[in-house]
Amino acid sequence: MDTFHVMKRILLQFRRDKRSVALMVVAPLLVLSLMWMVLDHDETNLELGAVDVPESMLEKLSSDTLVVETLSSSRAEEKLDEGTLDAVLYFENQETSLLLEGSDPNAAGAIQKELQSLRANQQISMNVEYYHGSEDLGLFDYVGPALIGFFVFFFVFIVGGVSFLRERTQGTLERLLATPIKRSEIVFGYLAGFGLFTILQSLVIASFSIYILGVFMDGSFFYVLIVTILLALAALSLGTLVSAFAENEFQMIQFIPLIIVPQVFFSGLFPIEGLGTWVQVIGQMMPLTYGAEAMRGIMLREASFAEIQLEVYILLGFTALFTTLNIFALKKHRRL
Description:
The protein is an alpha/beta fold and 336 residues long. The chain has helices spanning 2-16, 18-39, 55-59, 73-82, 105-114, 116-122, 139-169, 172-177, 183-212, 221-243, 249-254, 256-259, 261-264, 277-283, 287-301, 305-335, and strands at residues 46-51, 66-70, 87-92, 95-100, 126-130.
């Protein structure tokens, strides 16, 4: 009988907490749908530039997954800089050479596999070089920049959101709101206080990944630090915003499948080039997408600030947006 009463109490709790019941159904469906979209799509085409390659040789290159474009030498290098080519095939003085873009080891390996038949049929030797990276670049080196950004974003989101929630549930925030202090001053104060911690966290995570774990690094560590700090500030402002809609820490954790998990699929850990345009648009609405792209550009392609400035400004824009919404979200608590 006691067991029945305990069971009844739990069921009544779920009945009152409709958010938990909805998340138990919606969150798994959302994650499964994202996994289906990302993992169950047509194979991405490989982009190969051809410079002065004879027509007879080009005919041997045709395949379902290899797209060959005839280019001048200067234009091919421009497209390698832009990251829109996976490799360039040169033919000069009866010699063939392959210049791999190199920042994606999967694409580099696939290109070389596609060209194996050409080397066998034409009985030619091919000198292989790397525009970025090297032949020792592994899968962890490729996903490492995105992982650094993800862990910074994830833990700052959780710690910042839960800490801000505790300020509200323990009455500290209510007492502050009862004073003449402005809501904007409260938000900026919390963000600045936690922001100092995020700078230290970003420095530790980036340094450990690059100098201890040996993740491939071809750019400026200073730029890596800037991007990780901006990601952390975006996560902090988003976490504090979300905490305004949670009544306890458990509800705060419930937002992870809805806010954090979807961003993982668009952070570069999984290829999305072959997905529909509308799916990629969803990815462009997520801060981690831009942070991971900037990190990969710096660490794998030695990107300058001019090449990552768009991502930097977008991350600043996300932080400004979430901070502004935070100020408005505090309004309802002041009324209480």
